[in-house]
Amino acid sequence: MLDVRGLSKSFGGLAAVSNVDLSVDAGRIVSLIGPNGAGKTTLFAMVAGFLTPDAGSVRFQDRDLAGLKPHRICGRGMVRTFQITQPFAGLTTLENVMVGAYHRTADRREAATRARAVLDRVGMAAQAEQPADGLTVAGRKRLELARALATEPQLLLLDEVMAGLNPTEIDEIVGLIKQIRAGGITIFLIEHVMQAVMNLSDYTYVLNDGVLIAEGAPAEIAADPRVVEAYLGHGAAERMRTPEDGHA
Amino acid sequence: MAVRTLLFLAALLVLALIAPLLIANRFLIDVLTLILFSAFLGQSWNILGGYAGQFSFGSVVFFGTGAYTSSILLMTFGIDAWIGAIAALFAGAAVGAFVGFLSFRYGLRGSYFALITLAFAEVFKVLANSVEFTGGGIGIFIEHEPGLARLQFDDPAGYYYIALALTVVSLAIAWWLERSRFGAYLKAIRENEDAAEALGVNAFRCKMYAIMISGAMGGVGGTFYAQKFLYIDPPIAYGVATSVEMLLVSIVGGMGTVFGPLVGSFVLHGVNEVTRHYIQTPGLSLIVYGLILIAIIGYLPNGLIGLFKGRARPKDAEDA
């Protein structure tokens, strides 16, 4: 469904993303993990049309997305959420989601009906009339999700929807994401919360210093020494393995 | 509540329609005309600044272009002002498209957009001063030949009714924005352009439409002004003061609201007239006027409409 080839981006000589290949198949939940500053968000921004890549291509449903603005990409059926939530602060929760719903209908009543349905789905029906800037962090993350869902995408790009949430809230949103996938939407997510990723994804890519260092099923990834080192520092894999070896 | 609001508005409109019959004082009719006209120009700013969040500091550029368009058509080519008004509408929209394309294409936002619009207005002023067909610094005198085709009247009520019609149309446009997809998109762009783009909003196109609507309204306003005051020159047509008044009535009344510019215009002009009338010491009335302005802007960030909005707000999103 999504096919990324040789994607690269530098900022003033610093390679934020270099030569990344990855693909997301329809119906799956694919995750992209990596430590802070690994280039995950930059990669997402390029995929969703917010940044122009220096090199490489992004294809969605076998069509090249080169040069398309974000709203056109949304029109093709791929929509992103933001890591730092970007609510329309002066509008109510419902109005926020209606902006997404208007993508599929020009009629106000219809947009309101669809937006309410989405709010129901993400468990925010009670906050519909609340101003969006009064929502909690968890509420804002859900709102990001709801707005994106309202555009009725085929592929949903989620940028750290779990960051800053407590364990209960994470469980809720993991359930929600599974439910969204069950509804036929493919999901590509960036995540920091490892445990959630393990639970959720079918396939995982690991990015470090802008380079893909590993990919595979989550369980394989967790055991990969390169991944452990990327997260915990040089030599960590060695240190972790030693006591285990002693037991064996 | 919706029915009551509707009845209230209907009563207000009826009152506005019969006002010239009730008021014998010509001066008062003139003041009301200017209040309505100012509300109309304010609404033109409000669509771009209040709804779409693009703060223009030079919206007078539309007004001035409209004023020159119809005045030149009338005085040089003998074309009636009502046709001139239509030409002014298109001229205003065209200038809007020109300014908008150059600013939005290059992603100018916030204070940069404000500055570029201010600069455009100044450039137009200099141009109007230096070319032949605008009459240069001498300006254009418009003959007074009362008649509907010329949009000129002996009775001030004539101008009053035109100003009223313009205001009603501008309110209808704002009301449509409140209930349409386009309006929702403008608000989304105002609140967060990136997020709006991500959700499929063509921000560039929406902003272009907004500035063209705003420009078209300003252009028609220019024709009205020229036909009423029968004279325009570059400082009148492209003066900063008009730009400031346009944004001031919106900000004081409440940006991004249907009735904000109207309320703001009534209050600002009302306060202005009252202080001028009761305070005789020269300059003091301006100080009092300024203080009241500071108080409104300082204590009512959402404008005067914001005072009532807390109550009315939650219903807005619902289909009434």
Tell me the number of structural domains of chain A: 1
| Major beta sheet, strand line-up of chain A | 6-7-8-3-9-10
Alpha plus pi helix count of chain B: 14
Oligomer: heterodimer
For the largest interface, the chains and their residue counts are: A-B, 36 and 28 residues
Q: Main β-sheet of chain A, in a few words? A: 6 strands, mixed
* Average pLDDT over all residues of chain B: 90
Please name the CATH topology of chain A.
Answer: Rossmann fold
Helix content of chain B: over 70%
How would you describe this protein?
The complex is a heterodimer of chains A (248) and B (320). Chain A has 248 residues and is α/β, with parallel strands linked by helices. Chain A has a single domain (2-247), classed as P-loop containing nucleotide triphosphate hydrolases (Rossmann fold). Chain A has ten helices and ten strands. In chain A, strand 1 (2-11) and strand 2 (14-24) form a beta hairpin. The longest helix of chain A has 16 residues, at 167-182. The model of chain A has no long low-confidence stretch (mean pLDDT 88). By secondary structure, chain B is mainly alpha-helical. Residues 311-320 of chain B have low confidence and may be disordered. In chain B, helix 2 (26-51) packs across helix 11 (240-253), helix 4 (81-105) packs antiparallel against helix 9 (203-229) and helix 6 (156-179) packs across helix 7 (181-191). Chain B has a two-stranded antiparallel sheet. The termini of chain B are close together. The longest helix of chain B is centred in the C-terminal third of the chain and has 27 residues, at 203-229.
Question: Topology of this structure?
Answer:
The complex is a heterodimer of chains A (248) and B (320).
Chain A: E1 2-11, E2 14-24, E3 29-33, H1 40-47, E4 55-60, E5 63-64, H2 70-76, E6 78-80, H3 93-101, H4 108-121, H5 137-150, E7 155-159, H6 167-182, E8 186-191, H7 194-200, E9 203-208, E10 211-216, H8 218-223, H9 225-232, H10 236-247
Parallel strand pairs in A: 3-8, 3-9, 6-7, 7-8
Antiparallel strand pairs in A: 1-2, 1-4, 4-5, 9-10
Chain B: H1 2-22, H2 26-51, H3 60-77, H4 81-105, H5 110-130, E1 140-141, H6 156-179, H7 181-191, H8 193-198, H9 203-229, E2 231-232, H10 234-237, H11 240-253, H12 260-278, H13 284-299, H14 306-316
Antiparallel strand pairs in B: 1-2
Helix pairs in contact in B: 2-6, 2-9, 2-11, 2-12, 3-4, 3-9, 4-9, 6-7, 6-9, 7-9, 11-12, 12-13
